[in-house]
Amino acid sequence: MDGKTIKIGVIGYGVVGRGTVESLIGNAAVIRDKTGLDIVVKGIADLNIDRKNDEYTDLVEIKTKNADDLINDPEIDIIAELIGGYGAAKKFITGAINKGKHVVTANKALLAVHGREIFGLAEEKGVSLGFEASVGGGIPIIRVMKEDLAANNIQEIYGIINGTANYILTRMTKEGKAFDEVLRDAQEKGYAEADPTFDVEGIDTAHKICLLSSIAFSAVIPFDKIFVEGISNIKPVDIEIAKELGCTIKLLAIAKKDDSGMEVRVHPTIIPDSNMLSSVDGVFNAVCLTGDKVGTTMHYGRGAGGSATGSAVAGDIINIARNIAAGCGSRVPVLGFVKGSELSGLRSIEDITSCFYMRLMVVDAPGVLAKVGGILASNGISVSSALQREKEQGGEYVPLVFMTHETKGHNIMAAAEEIDELDVTVEKSVVIRVEGER
Fold first, then answer.
1. Bridge partners of 272?
2. How do residues 279-305 score in pLDDT, each as one tens digit?
3. Which of 208, 256, 257, 408 is catalytic?
4. Residue range of the domain that includes 426
5. 108 catalytic per annotation
6. More exposed terminus of the chain, fewer Cβ within 10 Å: N or C?
């Protein structure tokens, strides 16, 4: 193995692309000492390559606007696709695989939506497809699940895997600010995109839990079957009441499997402050896995950023390079399993049992509590506690909060629809699922 050269082509020289090249070139001596390999970035393709001259681009042989120049180069062993999106990225990945090249990507959206096709093509062509950087930025989690925990049945995954949403909820919790105010500030600081929909509405998180749950449960999970709810309806009053209950609100990705089936969902969740995930703040990510043999493990770190994500891409490249040098090709199946589970369907969010937090904004008048309580009772919902907050100064309405015992999702949704039709309610009910004992 000693002295072998492995050549890399990088498609996309944005934040992650540069972070990857910086890791591979800047730490080339470290990588050589650890692997005995010369891992060389032969080429970079980017539509704006003419404007991206730096100390790293000056060291590569090929600088091009055309990704096919790298895909068709017979000397390049591994292609790193780092442009994101669907159309062009899918074309480049499948083109590289069809050329017999190994591929590394950070493109969780593409793999979540088109993974079945891409994973199947990689297996058919006998090449490796690395996607460690697609979940959790610099946190090693994909390889841990595929290899280190291969002797376990993974039973549960709980994850905070979107830094933007977690940053916003952290600021709301610590500073008492409203969602819109914190979002604007996050956009100004570069923590949120100009269009933050994917982050704050849970879509990015759903892409990631789609991949994690597919690996964990040995079944390709259909992205369009995952329940997704974002954080834009969370208000400071919800944060404050959660605090009074000794709890925190987090946007969680949750996946569970037992003898009765599987569930995969993304939504704001109230968790007790004793839960390890409650202390994961700011742009940091964390994933808790529960296996039948290992128990619960927690994996924590920076969930985004060029250096952290580039490190994960580089890690996949190094892993594949070692396989090439050892002549063992694709050593681990793309999703970590040879024979997958039968996926009979995911449990509907309406059939999942949970405790719930329900907040109403109601007219401050006699009989309101009785009306609402009657609707909850008629839908089979047992209340563990009820709380009415004082009116805000100059306000006409009061928050009325219920914490329920366990009930099916369809019960709480049916009750919320009825309550929202009452003439004493002034805005749509806010319903948040509760996980863990308070």
1. 247
2. 999 999 999 999 999 999 999 998 888
3. 208
4. 349-434
5. no
6. N
